[in-house]
Design a protein that fits this description.
Layout: E1 8-12, H1 20-34, E2 39-43, H2 57-60, H3 69-72, H4 78-87, E3 90-96, H5 104-112, H6 114-117, E4 128-135, H7 146-155, E5 161-169, H8 182-196
Parallel strand pairs: 1-2, 1-3, 3-4, 4-5
Helix pairs in contact: 1-8
């Protein structure tokens, strides 16, 4: 997996192809490029990330994971995805809300970051900027985005990021709902332009 060091990474966490998260990610990436920032886009669904088995290897060998291909002999891209994240200068995660949290592929990636949690606190202090675009089908729910934000705030510091802001988008139930909402598309553009200038 090729990644240009010091580029911004737009990580699409949705398992659905060409859905609302991907549309929002495309808008955000275009805005970042428009101000001259180098941008890479990573679709998590195109990569194999097996769920953590709580085997404990990373507790005894910090940084190691029994599910990495060199140990398991099976395909797994978690280490490569982590390498992209660690090389990024900034991050935007575009994710739908599934049952008040992130979808399973992204949660599997977060769980696999145990290898970094098991290491020393070095590397958790970096404040590289991270942002999230979170889309939900529901219109209501005071705490609709809380579960996703808790996961992001726990996971991202392990890779040197600080979650600076998030953009909540409600009422996007159909696969192409965002495409039919120019007002929300403008919100994504305006929000991204603001963070690009931060």
């Amino acid at each position: 997996m090729d990644f240009h060091i010091n580029a911004w990474l737009v990580l699409i966490a949705s398992p659905r192809s060409r859905g609302n998260s991907e549309h929002a990610a495309g808008l955000a990436a275009a805005c970042l490029r428009a101000v001259g920032l180098p941008v890479e886009v990573l679709r998590l669904r195109e990569h194999t990330v097996a769920p953590c088995t709580a085997c404990g290897l990373c507790s005894t060998l910090p940084g190691a994971c029994a599910l990495d291909p060199d140990r398991s002999g099976r395909p797994d891209d978690a280490a490569a995805v982590f390498a992209c994240l660690r090389a990024a200068a900034g991050l935007i995660v575009a994710a739908p809300v599934y049952f008040y949290s992130v979808p399973a592929p992204f949660k599997a990636l977060a769980d696999r970051s145990q290898r970094y949690w098991s290491q020393t606190d070095a590397g958790r202090q970096s404040g590289k900027p991270a942002y999230a675009i979170l889309s939900a089908g529901r219109m209501r729910g005071e705490r609709l985005f809380d579960g996703s934000l808790l996961t992001l705030r726990s996971f991202l510091p392990l890779l040197g990021f600080s979650l600076r802001d998030h953009l909540p988008l409600r009422g996007l139930d159909g696969a192409d709902a965002l495409a039919g909402r120019p007002d929300l598309c403008d919100r994504v553009r305006d929000w991204t332009a603001r963070i690009a200038g931060a």
